[in-house]
Amino acid sequence: METKKISVLRLGHRRIRDQRLSTHIGLTAALFNLETVYYSGDHDQSLEESIRSVAEKWGSATRISHTETPFKIIKEFQGTTIHLTMYGAPHFEVIPQVKNENQKSILIIVGGAKVPAHVYKMVDYNCAVGYFPHSEVSALALTLYELVGKNPIYTKDPGAPMKLRGGEKGWGKKQQKVGEKKEGEKTF
Q: Which among 81, 85, 70, 168 is positioned nearest to 130, based on CA atoms?
C-alpha cells in the first residue's frame, strides 16, 4: 500500500471529563505519526500542549488543532472518511477496502458522548472494531495497525531528543545514544 496521509477527528471533547481519553487518542495518533489530530468540543490548551510536547520530544510530526466546524471537515475532506463505531461493518471487512482505494488521504472520526445520526451518513465507512463496548483508543490503535502496519510505531525521527530502546528484560534508556547497545539487548 502506498503511503497515505491519515488524520483523526475527535468529536465532542469535554475538557474535564475527556482530558485523559482525548490525550490518549492524540498520543496514539502521534505513535503512528499521523498528519493531524482535529478535535471539536471544548477548546483545551492543556491537551494541545501535551500532544505537541510529546510529539516534539519523541519524534512525531503529528499536529493538533481545535475546530468549531467538525462536520464541515468531514463534508469537505478530500479522501476516505472512516467513522469508528460499534454499529459499523467489521473492521476486517472495511480496512482491506480502504487500503485498495486510490485515495491519498484518510480521515478517521472518533466519536464523543453522543455522535449525531447525520455523521453515520456523511462518512464513507462506519467501521466497528468488535461489537462490545470498549475504549475509542483501542479501536483507533487497532484500526491504524491494520491500515499502516507496525513500522511507524517502531520508526521515529533519529534526531528526536527522547529515544527508548526496548529489550527482552524490558529495560531501556531514555536519551540513549544512537548505536549504544547493551549485551544481549534486542532493538527494533
A: 85
Contact between 54 and 27 (Cβ < 8 Å): yes
Q: Residue 10's closest CA among 90, 108, 79?
A: 108
* pLDDT tens digits for range 132-141: 888 899 999 9
- pTM for this predicted structure: 0.85
Question: What residue spans define the domains of the chain?
Answer: 5-154, 158-188
b/e map 26-60, b = 16+ CB within 10 Å: bbbbbbbbbbbbbbbbbebeebbebbbebbbebbb
User: What kind of architecture, by CATH, is found in domain 5-154?
Assistant: 3-Layer(aba) Sandwich (3.40)
Question: What is the distance between the alpha carbons of residues 183 and 72, in angstroms, rounded to a whole number?
Answer: 54
Q: How many CB atoms lie within 10 A of CB 64?
A: 23
